[in-house]
Design a protein that fits this description.
Elements: E1 7-13, E2 18-24, H1 25-29, H2 33-36, E3 37-44, E4 52-56, E5 65-68, H3 74-87, E6 97-104, E7 115-116, H4 119-127, H5 136-149, E8 155-159, H6 169-172, H7 178-183, H8 193-206, E9 215-221, E10 225-231, E11 234-238, H9 260-267, H10 273-282, H11 285-290, H12 295-303, H13 307-331, E12 336-340, H14 341-346, H15 348-355, H16 367-371, E13 378-379, E14 388-391, H17 396-410
Parallel strand pairs: 1-6, 6-8, 9-12, 12-14
Antiparallel strand pairs: 1-2, 2-3, 3-4, 4-5, 7-8, 9-10, 10-11, 13-14
């Protein structure tokens, strides 16, 4: 790696999409996170005739360029991304590119930190496919394609599950037969870990303290949603489990549910395992309750007197309160609650409702502060509140880039 290699390309490969960002880590280290982002983009509907690539060259201050038309596979998608970057003088052959960082959803118990990818690492990621069948295969395709494009460049895996590997066994294990659980790697892994790591650290900074001095409950509320209890910078509990289905009510996922519901649906409704999987992951949550999984639309319907939308919102908030109470008990002392991701950052009614009535736990929201819209981390609790309530925009790409760059420059 050359001395002026300060750039990291971050790739998030989905089953039919690739999200990417190119960042200059020297600028990020100086605190210029906006200037650090040189280019961002998205390739979607890979494998379809209507594929779309949207590329924004932020370094040049250029407008977004969009191209549509068939992109056959991930190899073609990444080649198209490389061409777009090259057109801006940011090509993958640049000596300033230090590494490529890959989001990998499931790292099991083996990967507790960012890891340089070699044949053995890739084999282990493949071995974990049965516990992440929707995510790890796509991540693997992205890694293999990037390796083919730049075989000489360090490729680093940053795992969604890594931040949660600090959970004690009392939080990570399910109360089922130990031999069966171990034989099939059944335990609580948690997800959104990169976001929880970033937001808990930024929350500590907002309070003017080191992460080791702060206990934070992080609420990552997007279409997928999860909570975590972070004690002194280490995760001690999180709401998602073996898969991202467990925990909070989400856009299309049910979250916590009596497991016997699955047996009941099989025996009484005659549903297959695949049909139940589809129901709980894609047809439940807010969508299943009221037909919408967009919180903005749900709030609009509530304002118009829609009772189904109101009930869906109440169920969503009820589950949030349960986790706030539970994690307060787990942590013993809470310094801050941080809302993040699409709903957490933008839906003021969700934040207000989640904290309402929790004054005895030291939590409160100031209505005027809560109503402010901003892209900056901020406190929305009144001065008298014992627990700070914050809105902290997440930045998973920056976190992946930072972890990637720290690893390759340390070696």
């Amino acid at each position: 790696m050359t001395a002026n290699a300060t750039r990291v390309l971050v790739l998030n490969s989905g089953s039919s999409s690739v999200k990417y960002q190119l960042l200059d880590m020297e600028k990020a280290a100086d605190g210029d996170t906006a200037g650090a982002r040189l280019a961002v983009g998205l390739v979607e509907r890979i494998g379809e005739a209507t594929s779309r690539l949207a590329h924004t060259p932020l370094a040049a201050g250029g407008a977004t360029r969009e191209t549509t038309g068939p992109i056959a596979d991930h190899q073609a998608a990444l080649k198209a991304v490389a061409d777009e970057l090259a057109a801006d003088g940011l090509g993958l052959d640049s000596p300033e590119l230090a590494a490529i960082g890959h989001r990998v959803v499931h790292g099991g118990l083996k990967f507790t930190a960012p890891t340089v990818i070699d044949a053995a690492v890739l084999k282990e990621i493949e071995r974990l496919v049965p516990v992440a069948p929707l995510h790890n295969p796509a991540n693997i395709i992205g890694i293999r394609t990037a390796q083919a494009l730049r075989p000489d460049l360090p490729q680093v895996a940053v795992f969604d599950t890594a931040f949660h590997t600090t959970m004690p066994e009392s939080a990570a294990r399910y109360a089922i037969d130990v031999e069966t659980a171990d034989a099939h790697r059944i335990r609580r892994y948690g997800f959104h870990g990169t976001s929880h790591a970033y937001v808990s650290r930024r929350t500590a900074e907002l309070l003017g303290k080191a992460p080791e001095e702060v206990n934070v409950i992080v609420l990552h509320l997007g279409n997928g949603a999860s909570a975590s209890a972070v004690q002194g910078g280490r995760c001690v509990d999180t709401s998602m489990g073996l898969t991202p289905l467990e925990g909070l009510v989400m856009g299309t996922r049910s979250g916590d549910i009596d497991p016997a519901v699955t047996f009941h649906l099989k025996r009484v409704a005659g549903m297959s395992a695949d049909e139940i999987d589809e129901l709980l992951n894609k047809k439940s949550g807010l969508l299943g309750l009221c037909g919408d999984n967009d919180m903005r639309e749900i709030r609009r319907r509530i304002d118009e007197g829609d009772e189904r939308a109101a009930l869906a919102f109440d169920i969503y908030i009820h589950r949030l309160k349960k986790y706030l109470g539970a994690y307060t008990a787990i942590l013993g002392k809470v310094d801050a609650v941080a809302f993040t991701a699409g709903v957490g950052e933008n839906a003021a009614p969700v934040r207000a409702a989640a904290v309402a009535g929790l004054e005895e736990l030291g939590m409160a929201v100031d209505a005027s502060l809560n109503a402010v819209r901003s892209d900056e981390p901020r406190l929305i609790s009144p001065d008298y509140a014992r627990v700070a309530v914050a809105v902290v925009p997440t930045d998973e790409e920056l976190e992946i880039a930072r972890q990637t760059y720290a690893l390759v420059t340390a070696s």
